[in-house]
Known about the structure:
Layout: H1 2-27, E1 32-37, H2 45-65, E2 71-76, E3 89-95, H3 101-109, H4 111-118, E4 124-129, E5 132-138, E6 151-156, H5 165-182, E7 186-191, E8 194-200, H6 208-224, E9 230-235, E10 238-244, H7 262-297
Antiparallel strand pairs: 1-4, 2-3, 3-5, 4-5, 6-9, 7-8, 8-10, 9-10
Amino acid sequence: xxxxxxxxxxxxxxxxxxxxPFVKNSSDFNxxxxxxxSTQTIxxxxxxxxxxxxxxxxxxxxxxxxxxxxxxRATAGRDLENNNNGAGVSGLFQCRRDLSNDDCYxxxxxxxxxxxxxxxxxxxxxxxxxGCYFRYQTNELSIHQTSKFEVLHKVCGEKAEDVGxxxxxxxxxxxxxxxxxxxxxxxxxxxxxxxxxAQCEEDLVGHRQCGACxxxxxxxxxxxxxxxxxxxxxxxRCFISYGFIxxxxxxNSYGEHGGRNSSTGKLVAIVxxxxxxxxxxxxxxxxxxxxxKKDDIW
Length: 298
């Protein structure tokens, strides 16, 4: 019986290794990109306890909505407008538009622990993960409003070896800037071997500010990530990213305003087909081996 079980254990192990990359892709959405915690903190112990309870109440409102919505805003605590000395907090979350409802929920559901660990006593904070972000502000914090979008975080990749890469990147940026408005504040597309993505905070969708925010981000990333093969720039109300995909066929392998096209489905089908063929092959070999043993006995 042990010899019969071993091939099936081997098959399970091989199938697990084949599917492991797809499982990891989903968990990558919960990876921390950056955190911004205000220097103004809750100092008194009584205020600290109230602040923690208010944040917990805020998350209790936000997290359940993340299984149905990609964006949601809520308030918790005392009246934000009529009680300047209260512990009121306003906050919101936003998921990337191309995430499934389950991935959005899992991403947002991981935010409370990160927020409590990283910005426990902060009067305001923003926690940015790969797939979603959360920001909040207490009514005690006064923020100076400006007409410019604030740069929160940037990441630049390695220098490109091809001198013509920047031209391809700029062409992809142009398509992105034109498509972000028609895409309802989200764009995902490719030009040649360059994939670009952009998203505005939901409050900006339908306004010129969304296009203005993305245009500002493009100008900044051109300067900050000069001739690099990848880059990400996060402003306070939008983000953009780009990357070189060497094995991708030229053209739009990503559908505009959405996620990947059928190329991903074909890859999954190939992996599934290979796994099934491998499993059947191993079973057949073990069957032949068992038949030979019977022949030896007789």
